[in-house]
Amino acid sequence: MGHRLVSGAAPACRVPHGHDEVVTVDIAAGDGRGLDPETNMLVEFERAKGRWFEFVDGSLDHSFHVSDRDPLVGWFRENEPELLPSLLVTPGDPTTEVRAACYFAKANALLEDGLACVRVELRETPTNAVEIHGSNAAPGDGWWTRPDFTINDLAPEI
């Protein structure tokens, strides 16, 4: 992924740059049920992780993360509107913290079969990581609350 921060809090991050991120999502039975006595599983792993992996591979991989206040959003809208679906737009700077909170909410929106996300760790670099639990929810409503594969609320103006 690539991103840039425009608030000025991290001057080196004003220049678009990239990271190889690692996202770890911990899930549990949200309804408190135990193991299925026939399978000794809550849910088969492929079923549990399928929609999340589809979101990561199809939406997050090679996305560009920007603030909802970044002037680059307007540039893309005017010059390359076909790339708007690849912009991950956050409320304020796309810091590791807010993206982890958005991923936490998105995982919960995507999970099925009574499963719930209980923790997200977003490792931006080998030395920078953020861990989010339910009490650190993303602000307000947005793409992160919908059970689809979108990463912004931009509508192409064509």
Annotate the secondary structure layout.
Layout: E1 2-3, E2 17-18, E3 22-29, H1 45-60, E4 64-67, H2 71-79, E5 87-90, H3 96-110, E6 115-125, E7 128-133
Parallel strand pairs: 1-4, 4-5
Antiparallel strand pairs: 1-2, 3-6, 6-7
Describe this structure in words.
The protein has 158 residues and is α/β, with parallel strands linked by helices. The chain has a domain at 19-62 and 96-140. 25% of the residues lie in helices and 23% in strands. The protein is built from 3 helices and 7 strands. It has helices at 45-60, 71-79, 96-110; strands at residues 2-3, 17-18, 22-29, 64-67, 87-90, 115-125, 128-133. The strands form 2 sheets. The protein has a 4-stranded mixed sheet with strand order 2-1-4-5, covered by helices on one side. A hairpin with a 2-residue loop joins strand 6 (115-125) and strand 7. The model has no long low-confidence stretch (mean pLDDT 91).
Low-confidence parts, pLDDT < 50 over ≥5 residues?
none
- Average pLDDT number: 91
**Percent helix:** 25-40%
- Got a strand count? 7
Assign the structural class, choosing from mainly alpha, mainly beta, alpha/beta, alpha+beta, or little secondary structure.
Answer: alpha/beta
**How many distinct helices?**
3
Distance between the termini: 26 Å
Query: What is the percentage of strand-forming residues?
Result: 15-25%
Query: How do the strands of the widest beta sheet line up side by side?
Result: 2-1-4-5
**Based on CA inertia axes, which overall geometry fits?**
elongated
Q: How big is the Rg? A: 17 Å
Main beta sheet strand tally, sense and closure: 4 strands, mixed
Query: What is the H/E string?
Result: EEEHEHEHEE
